[in-house]
Amino acid sequence: MGDVTDFTWEQWFGVLLLAGVGVLILDLLRRLAVGDLGASTLTTFLWRGLVDGLIVGLAAVGLSMTYSILRFANFSHGDLVTTGAFSGWTAVWVIGGLGAADLGSRLLLNADRSTSARALDVHVYAEPLAIVAGLVIAALVTILVALAIDRLVYRRMRDSGGIPLLIASVGVALVLRYLIVFLYGERTRGVVRSSPSIDHPLLFWTDGVVVHELIMVGSAVVLMVGLHVLLQYTKLGTAMRAMADNRDLALITGIPTERVILATWVIGAGLTGVAGYLIVLEQETLNFNTGWFLLLLIFAAVILGGIGSIYGAITGGLIIGLADNVMLVWISGDLTRVAAFMLMILILIFRPQGLFGGVETA
Amino acid sequence: MTVDDPDTDPDRPATDGSGAAPASPLEGAAAVTESRPRWQVDLGYIVLTTIGIYVLITALGLLTGLGFGGVFRQLQTVTFLAAAYALVVLALNLHWGYTGLFNIGVAGFMAVGAYGMAILTAPTEGTTTPGLGLPMWVGIPVGVALAGLVGLIVVLPALRIRADYFAIVTLAFAEVIRLTINSGALADVDAFGRQLGTGGGRGINFPLLEHAIPRWVLYEGGDPAQGATFVGVQVLTVTNRLGIERTVVESAIYTSVLVGLVAVVFVLSVRTANSPFGRLLKGIREDELATKSLGKNTDLVKIKVFVLGCAIMGLAGIFWQGRNGYVDPDAFLPIITFYIFIALIIGGSGSNTGSVVGALVFAGVLFEGPPYVQRIINQVIDLPRPTTIYDAVVALGSFDPLPLVGYTVGQLANLRFVLFGVILILLMIYRPDGLLGHRDEPASPLDLRAERPTDGPSSVDGGDDDE
């Protein structure tokens, strides 16, 4: 990117983008001052943006890791999110719903419409153990599925280019998604009861904190900190960085590349599965398309932060989440995604290394 | 995907190298040698695939007592779908197969074409989403031009980005288009002093092209009251005598017009591929830097071919939705793009013949096949229908496999997507060139082999071995 023309393009784009964001922030302040926009509305948008952003960020970390180490855009990533969601909530229903409904409808998340989340009383106060178990199982099942896919498909294509791998990943996405349909059916089902909330005078900025959202934020932050520690203070992190940088060189230096790839899938898929599980904890409903519809947003987060950068993916997720919610001040809800995708397209075209200069920290 | 493949099939006709276009001036020269020219071979592939699929559908249907009516409807659906797919697949082949532009926003360009036409031709009054009420001969070209224009807007900034970024950009654009159409913001707009709009989620009703186009062929001015045209008289006399219903005739004409369009685009595509412009496309695909260093303006070539392909996609979108007389955003989900890709990859990207064969196989066997088989099985056997797979597996415990079979048959429509995925994966691992993509397309307009009959084909192709 040393080219002078590229540089000026980028600078122009950066200036324009910053100016745009500046204008929007000024307008936001103006609206707050004039009273067009209530402070509580804004805090709600910000909080929801944080919640959405952390989850998108969590899912984006996995995508970013596979993108930088295996060097392809994994279009089956969204369906790994769905896999995590279905497996985790199946575990919650099987463990938590013991006795409340028969095994068949619990195993298939009420595919036969004989029970409901209300009947099983699925929320965190009633079933704390089941919800924790679900989180772990979501991660485990997603890891196993991802490893099986890598063994069956991607491993045979290690030396193919990015595009054949991308196409194969579309195939994987279709297989995963419709196997889930085969097992669970096409219906959108509610799997969680609406969350209890805490109301306390200390929580001055909101009427009440939704406990499920608090759990989401907590789990996401803990996982991200854990990931940071793992990658900064272990050899694995260095090995991953080396592989992302130059695979052949890494191989020559004696880095066991296949083992690093394995670790990439374990960490990436685990976080992705958890993200899928937590998304459902918040939105309470689940469908075989849940992850697929999120895929482009996850890509947007990865690209915004710079492909290969884990901190970039988290930041990108937060920006996307915040933008998706705060944009509601100016545009209607059905256009916020359009704005997010346009932002992603502009970044890809004018600043493909991402907002933060593409420091690969994998 | 290669221009000259050294591993050429040894028993391929020796005159493969002759101009592939039917109208090629080399046709005569090729006919001198004893093997058939390439365009005949190619036509043979297409005709054989069509016949094969027709025979398969007819045999399956008749053997299991589906009756002539059912078989006929199935054949008609398959023909229409295959032709509609073939049109888009040919366009995508121009993008990806020849130029290497990895466009996965196909559904978006189809949407632009179809919506452009729908807004122009929808009646001004008496419908939920009024349009401009213009005739279809205005609507269709404008829709096609709009699709090309949007293609231009997409490709201009995206010319120099990496292939995988290009993919994400095009996919995101397609989603932006679909979500914008779907949003309430543009659903009802006042423009040109009229009520207009995309209708949001409720879509747009417009005059059925399946009626309009055949009537235009059959009657003077497209109006049955004004009497039949010369063609119309012939067709109507024959069909009246045979006792075929008017609606059947009309939809048959509609499909024929579409097949004719496919033929035109096919010939154009083949000629493009064999022209100097086509060699530039292949050059960009193989090595853009090398092509650039030969002094070629690769950016301009990419823009041209992208816009052309997008316009054809728009045309396909128009014909595809013209059969329903109704468009809504859900018809343009990203999955449509992947259908097109599967068809292209089966046939072999970089081959026009492969594109058509792929479209036929995809529409006739993979897409329409499983529901057809399901219909036939339901007609023949009365299988138990458990509502969930759990019940089916429980029955398996008491050694009764029938419920599981019944459940699987009931799920065939969904399971075909698993099949698509498996095929895509297997093709990418074992045969990335598809059925016909491995064949060499001669870079030279002259048949080099014809002048040196003693040389084997490999010695002519061998020039590129050292690359």
TrEMBL record, chain A:
GO terms for cellular component: plasma membrane. It comes from the Archaea. Pfam families: BPD_transp_2 (PF02653). Belongs to the binding-protein-dependent transport system permease family. LivHM subfamily. The chain crosses the membrane at residues 12-29, 50-70, 129-149, 161-184, 204-231, 260-280, 292-314, 326-350. Keywords: Amino-acid transport, Cell inner membrane, Cell membrane, Membrane, Transmembrane, Transmembrane helix, Transport. It comes from Natronobacterium haloterrestre (Halobiforma haloterrestris). GO terms for biological process: D-alanine transmembrane transport; L-alanine transport; L-isoleucine import across plasma membrane. This is Branched-chain amino acid transport system permease protein. PANTHER family: BRANCHED-CHAIN AMINO ACID TRANSPORT SYSTEM PERMEASE PROTEIN LIVH (PTHR11795), HIGH-AFFINITY BRANCHED-CHAIN AMINO ACID TRANSPORT SYSTEM PERMEASE PROTEIN LIVH (PTHR11795:SF371). InterPro entries: ABC_transp_permease (IPR001851), BCAA_transport_permease (IPR052157).
UniProtKB/TrEMBL annotation, chain B:
Residues 441-454 have a biased composition (Basic and acidic residues). It is found in: Cell membrane. Residues 15-27 have a biased composition (Low complexity). Keywords: Cell membrane, Membrane, Transmembrane, Transmembrane helix. The keyword Oxidoreductase does not apply. It is a multi-pass membrane protein. This is Amino acid/amide ABC transporter membrane protein 2, HAAT family. It comes from Natronobacterium haloterrestre.
